[in-house]
Amino acid sequence: MLERFSVRAEDQVLVDHEALRRTVADLFVACGVSDDDATAGADVLVTADLRGVETHGVSNMLRQYIGWFRDGVHKPSPEWTIVHETRGTATIDGDRGLGILQGGPAMQLTIEKARDVGVGTVTMRNSGHLGPIGHFAYQAAEQGMVGMCMTASSLLIVPTFGALPRYGTNPIAFAAPARSQPFMLFDAAMSTVASNKIGLARRVGADMEPGWIAEPDGTPVMEERPAPSGSFSLLPLGGTREQGSHKGYGLGLLVEVMTTLLAGAVPRMVERDTKPRHSFIAYNVAAFTDLDQFKDTMDQMLQTLTETPPAPGHERVLYPGLPEHETEMQRRANGIPLHREVIDWFSGITSELSVAPLVTL
Amino acid sequence: MLERFSVRAEDQVLVDHEALRRTVADLFVACGVSDDDATAGADVLVTADLRGVETHGVSNMLRQYIGWFRDGVHKPSPEWTIVHETRGTATIDGDRGLGILQGGPAMQLTIEKARDVGVGTVTMRNSGHLGPIGHFAYQAAEQGMVGMCMTASSLLIVPTFGALPRYGTNPIAFAAPARSQPFMLFDAAMSTVASNKIGLARRVGADMEPGWIAEPDGTPVMEERPAPSGSFSLLPLGGTREQGSHKGYGLGLLVEVMTTLLAGAVPRMVERDTKPRHSFIAYNVAAFTDLDQFKDTMDQMLQTLTETPPAPGHERVLYPGLPEHETEMQRRANGIPLHREVIDWFSGITSELSVAPLVTL
């Protein structure tokens, strides 16, 4: 399925990740973002592209971010306020900053709290798009912790049995460190598919699978069908009630509570223009058990999973984070494939913002 | 679907929940459980029956629990040890106690930690079956907190693309308080269905839905079919990769990490006889935001959900915890329906253990 959505070889231009980082950071700086934030933000986006998460990488997101800065939707230099704080928690007002630039510092605060009292939880309201949230969960894992990150997004999902969208794809990310195996890194929308997948299917002319979207009256679409050209609602993970959509729906609401309600904000289903809200959680492994033993056991578990005999028609069993790690190794060596159209956009925007042009391979 | 699985009217005997509590507590005491633990354990089981969660109530679980005590599998009076502790966390060795009797005190410790530092997380290894884990999440919600509970269960689920079961149904429970609406209470296995549902389908002669179980070679069974008579493996929530089973799989692993790895234990896929492991989390709402405002916003959100226009063929939109609350109100007033066969079992076991017989309505 994923393969169907990738850029065709004849439309690809390869770019080295270091060159891409430089250009993305330069563009952020040209929008008024500080050098440090720009470097961190470029790392978030380019890492997504390295790991094959195109939906949340440079090509899909950067032009929106730049547009938002130019239109004044987000402040390039926000000053966040901690509105509530305890030893293990904080609630932050993000001052309309861009999420991908605020996620790193927010997770670092969470990690410091977990280092202090074993577990930390930070919520943030009045922020912006958080991008590939797995990035921030991974940040905790790199520091010997189990990390989680969630974000509440636009009104896109119909509740089970419902006819109108009431909440967003509300992804959950989760990362845990291992010793020699690639870290476990789970990052998934609590809909059957991420909304960007519908746009991608439309762009490459692929059919959608059953259980992805709802008819305008809320009925689950249960056959293969081209992606709709207009607006659509997504189904909760599970698709139909019989196949567990009430579970995907409940998990979506869990994210809404953890991000929106625990940040002292109001869900979009109640107030349409509520700004993005996030949640960051870190569990300090050393507070619970021996970190070395934890990593060894992670290795054993992840190896057991990959050594599981595959079902007929499948080559092997994966775990969350493994294919992305493999893609990252390959793309670090060989470059990141970007669509010609994205290269053209870079060409225009770097010229417009007087930034050095993107160097391709 | 749920309706198909309920006990037929002609097989039902009604029992008042107070009478059922007394008998269940008496039976626990007869097994060597302390009065307090027996009362708490009866509350866990009978509340499940009141809320219509028959899979985890008296009829489905009590005889197993009594059998385990009699066979020495679990200690009726365990003495747990806290093996690691910080201000916000604890790791407990459960001394082979029964989970449903240990969950309440473990969650209470979690809540105290959250009252101290805003968030608390307690893991437990070497315990027993935790039963309806939503009960413990709800315990936190009743004390003004957002509560979570997870437990790692037997090897039952095949990973996406895999041919052998590698982890359990690994349920996640989540509860959040509201002001005048019934609390949100989510409690769901991270498989398409709970394993008990297959047994129930078999018992009442109902077909399984597509996406519930795997063929012996791991291939998802995608048609309606009678429940298998022998052993089977379940599919992760989502069913197939195209419909998001990799998400259900990742969530199952998330639970494995939070319960097993963070408790310093080893997953069953690595060591088959690892004893049950659990995780309890409490977020003190008042540490993040104003509790009254939180409850009011919860009310607004839950009302917005129930007022959502339904899709054709559906009566109304629910939220997790609402139908269970309605069942509880009805059963508190009219009694809990138990199958005649369960009544017969009570008759035998109360006589055998010299306990006063169960009073029916």
Structure description:
Chain A has 361 residues and is of the alpha+beta class. The first copy, chain A, has 2 domains: 1-77 and 335-361, Orthogonal Bundle (Hypothetical Oxidoreductase Yiak, Chain: A, domain 1); 79-319, 2-Layer Sandwich (Ribosomal Protein S8, Chain: A, domain 1). The first copy, chain A, has 11 helices and 13 strands. The longest helix of chain A has 19 residues, at 99-117. Chain A is globular and about 50 Å long. The mean pLDDT of chain A is 95. Chains A and B meet through helix 4, strand 4, strand 6, strand 7 and helix 7 of A and helix 4, strand 4, strand 6, strand 7 and helix 7 of B.
CATH superfamily annotation of the largest domain in chain A? Malate/L-lactate/L-sulpholactate dehydrogenase, NADPH binding domain
Could you say which structural class the secondary elements and strand pairing of chain A correspond to?
A: alpha+beta
User: Beta fraction of the residues of chain A?
Assistant: 15-25%
What is the number of independent domains of chain A?
A: 2
What's the total number of strands of chain A? 13
List the strand order in the largest sheet of chain A. Answer: 2-3-4-12-5-6-7
Which value, in Å, is the CA radius of gyration of chain A?
20 Å
Quaternary: homodimer
The largest sheet of chain A, given as strand count, sense and whether it forms a barrel, is:
7 strands, mixed
* Shape field of chain A: globular
| Poorly predicted regions of chain A | none
N/C terminus separation of chain A: 28 Å
